[in-house]
Amino acid sequence: MLKVENLHASVGDKEILRGINLEVKAGEVHAIMGPNGSGKSTLASVLAGNEKFTVTEGKVEYMGEDLLTLPIEERSRKGLFLGFQYPVEIPGVTMANFMKLAVNEHRKAKGLAPLTAAEYLRLMREKSAIVELDSKLTARSVNEGFSGGEKKKNEIFQMAMLEPKLAILDETDSGLDIDALRIVATGVTRLKREDNATVVITHYQRLLDYIVPDYVHVLYKGRIIYSGDKSLALKLEKEGYDWLINDYKEE
Amino acid sequence: MQQLFNTLGCATLSSSRLLTGRYIATAECSEHLVVEADASVELILHNIEGELRIDLERGAKLRLVRLTIQSDCNSMLRVTLNDSAECYATDVLLSASAVGLDIKLEGQHSHVDVGGVFLVSGEERASVTADVAHRTEDTTSRIKYKGVASGLSRGEFSGLVYVAPGAQHTDSEQLSRNVAIGKARINTKPQLEIYADDVRCSHGATVGQLDEQAVLYMRQRGLSLEMAQRLQIEGFVSDVVLHSAIEECRDELVEVLNEKLQTL
Q: B104: which residues sit within 8 A by CB, 6+ positions away?
């Protein structure tokens, strides 16, 4: 589904990604961990198509296509979803209105007719239940005045609405109390299917108690320096990153 | 829009003394009207030109919508409020025109509340003036204008809040918030002139750009750049028309606003 080869990316003169290799297949859950400033969020942004970053080398294949030539909205319509670490507030634009446009753009890209008002309401009700999102929030402006937990639930709600093939969740667990974390993680797990994949970017192991990854990768200074199965996350939780980083330095 | 005004079943302006009811005016409209004491009048002004004077007698209530869609529709509205009179206005300017509002709070406990918006695109030039004079004690004013300019257009807002000597307990808020897209420019000039010492006056003015983070966020959900920008602007200005002083005008105002948004 996703094949990243030797990906280098910079912002301004500063190189942040320095040769990422990653392959994600349908049905898999990958976790990307690593200390602050290692490039985790940059990787998510570059894959999503944020134009702030320049890809200087390497390639990314997504569903058999060259991902890097597609603008951000095209990537979205082809099923790539980014859950933002800091969801943006959009005053005056209601969630319901925003998502209706988004869902219909996705449908248009698939050659489907827009949803009727009734169909759309039904879809919204059904999907907001997945993350226990208060239905009143959909009548409010996007993320405006939402609590930290509501913002993150709202990201997963949008993911549920858009049914992505590949979801990249950037620190969706940060700033969540344990209840919100459980709800968000359960939502993600319920959306998991054989034909989609999830990449979870996280700083903490605790999210991985709920979303069990098939692979865990450690990102450090713009490279994936170690990959393993879910036991790696536990070891990182206990022992920190130092042992890995020291190994890496000795190489 | 014309359609709406014709179907509301209201009279066009004719007499200069207005009793409770709904009135409309279109085109050239230089008159001097009086809203009778304690009457409640709704007034819809559609592409008017010229100078319209309205006096509100004691306790009169005026709800007003001025919509300017045609170019070169320059109009000035002068409203005088006597004791306990109230004026609620929605001012929507969507063309290369100059519109003005001149409010005089002459009577105690009089109150004015204006929500306005102007949108210009292409090479249009538009200007709005909104002056309020608090001429006696215990009067309140709320003035809020939002402006958006795109393309090579220019928008201008100028607003003066004047508090006369002795006009104690004046309570006034004036706000001008603007978004200039690309090469477009908006100048805003909010002014305060205060000659009384026991007053509460606030004013603010901003000229900003579109929020790039918000545009990026919306594009990540599948909206095109243009859709995302338009939605953001719609979100920025829509509260003005959603709180239309005359509720029945709301849907039509939303519609003409959306039509204009397509041209940005």
A: B78, B79, B80, B81, B133, B135
Q: How far apart are the first and last CA of chain A?
A: 31
Count: domains in chain A: 1
**Tens-place pLDDT, residues A136-192:** 888 899 999 998 889 999 999 999 999 999 999 998 887 788 888 888 888 889 899
What pLDDT is attached to residue A251? 55
In angstroms, the CA A80 to CA A74 distance is 9
Domain that holds residue A40: 2-250
Tell me whether B236 touches chain A (CB under 8 Å): yes
Residues B247, B263: contact at Cβ < 8 Å?
no
Is residue B238 one of the residues assigned to a domain? no
Q: What is the pLDDT of residue B4?
A: 41
Per-residue pLDDT tens digits for A220-249? 999 999 999 988 888 888 888 888 887 776
Judge whether A79 and A164 are in contact, CB under 8 Å: yes
Reduced to 3 states (helix: H, G, I; strand: E, B; else coil), residue B33 is strand
Given a contact cutoff of 8 angstroms between Cβ atoms, the answer to whether A56 and A9 are in contact is yes
B235 with A73: Cβ contact below 8 A: no
A with B: how many residue pairs have Cβ under 8 Å apart? 70
- Say which CATH number the domain at A138 has: 3.40.50.300
CA-based nearest distance A159→chain B, Å: 9
ipTM of the assembly?
0.94
Residue B45, domain member (yes or no): yes
Chain A nearest CA to B239, separation (Å): 7
What residues contact A153, with CB distance under 8 A and at least 6 apart? A131, A132, A133, A180, A183, A184, A187
Count Cβ atoms within 10 A of the Cβ of residue B107 and give its class: 0-12 exposed, 13-18 middle, 19 or more buried: buried
The per-residue pLDDT of chain B, averaged, comes to: 92
Cα separation, B225 vs B245, in Å, equals 33
In a domain, B232, yes or no: no
Domain residues for the domain of B125 are: 2-210
Residue B217 within any structural domain of the chain: no
Question: How many domains are contained in chain B?
Answer: 1
